[in-house]
Design goal:
Length: 301
């Protein structure tokens, strides 16, 4: 019995260190880049968003807002109060929706993490998140014209924690907050990916996420709802699944539904959407992920 346990521990350690060595530097660079954007460029990104009220053409504003959402380093609990201040400043709901949607799905730090999945998957993630932001903005522009979609009454713009007068110390403090926020989830992701590699046959991953393309997309979109906790923590798992036969469309569906339906995000969103608009949001996310995953599988069949 002890010999079997020792052998399994050796195997686990091998897969764990293999995954760690392949992904660790993406995590480090991602945190460093995310803190850089947060400390030195966040205010400029938000100033560009506030300046959009001078833009008259709604579609151009939607595209621009979605791009700014991808560039924003904030998490959902930082994005909603900022969006509330944008709303009070006269920014239109469709622009806010585009900014919030793409900001939920992606940020500079997660872009760096996702590079560990390969160039093709990285670009799929960037483009699907960007177009998801555009799609939700267009839907609100066409179906909620003249109507209020959000309720930001209970939100005020949060005070910035990046206030140290020494820029280097300010950066280090932000970086340390990033380490504390993502480190545990990153290690859990490495552990889970090592367990998947050791105990889950590749044929099973291919069957669930890749063999039947339509079924794989549906399963990935469904699994993304309960499994997704932290962006950095899911990168090792996705890397293992992709290597084991997961289709690119299934990966795209997972990368959309995961962050968009993360439990902590849903609680914050429900407070500003109300139950009716919240259900519409949920339906949109699932529908968009299924359509994107199907299209991507058709392109990369």
């Amino acid at each position: 019995m002890m010999e079997i346990l020792r052998r399994e521990l050796i195997y686990f350690w091998y897969y764990f260190t293999l995954q760690l060595s392949q992904i660790f530097w993406y995590w480090i660079i991602g945190m460093a880049a995310g803190s850089l954007v947060s400390v030195f460029f966040k205010d400029r990104i938000h100033a560009l968003m506030r300046g959009m009220k001078k833009t008259r053409h709604g579609v151009i504003g939607i595209i621009f807002a979605s791009a700014l959402g991808v560039a924003s380093p904030l998490c959902m609990y930082g994005t909603i109060p900022i969006a509330a201040s944008f709303s009070k400043g006269g920014i239109r709901d469709e622009w806010l929706a585009s900014f919030m949607m793409s900001s939920i799905l992606l940020n500079p730090q997660l872009i760096i993490y996702s590079a560990a999945l390969g160039v093709k998957v990285l670009w799929i993630r960037i483009l699907t998140c960007f177009f998801c932001g555009i799609a939700v903005g267009l839907l609100i522009m066409f179906f909620f014209r003249g109507k209020s979609y959000f309720d930001f009454k209970s939100f005020d713009e949060p005070a910035s924690r990046d206030t140290d007068p020494n820029l280097f110390i300010r950066y280090l403090k932000n970086l340390w907050r990033n380490v504390k926020a993502t480190g545990l989830y990153f290690l859990v992701g490495i552990v889970l990916s090592a367990l998947f590699q050791r105990y889950i046959p590749e044929d099973a991953i291919t069957f669930v996420f890749g063999g039947n393309k339509a079924w794989g997309v549906l399963m990935a979109a469904t699994v993304g709802v309960p499994l997704y906790v932290c962006g950095g923590g899911t990168i090792p798992i996705l890397r293992t699944w992709l290597a084991s036969g997961m289709s690119l469309g299934s990966a795209a569906a997972f990368m959309i539904t995961g962050p968009a339906t993360k439990i902590t995000n849903l609680g914050a969103l429900k407070s500003v959407l109300g139950i009716k608009h919240f259900l519409l949001y949920w339906g949109f996310v699932v529908g968009f992920s299924l359509v994107c995953g199907t299209i991507i599988n058709l392109i990369f069949h």
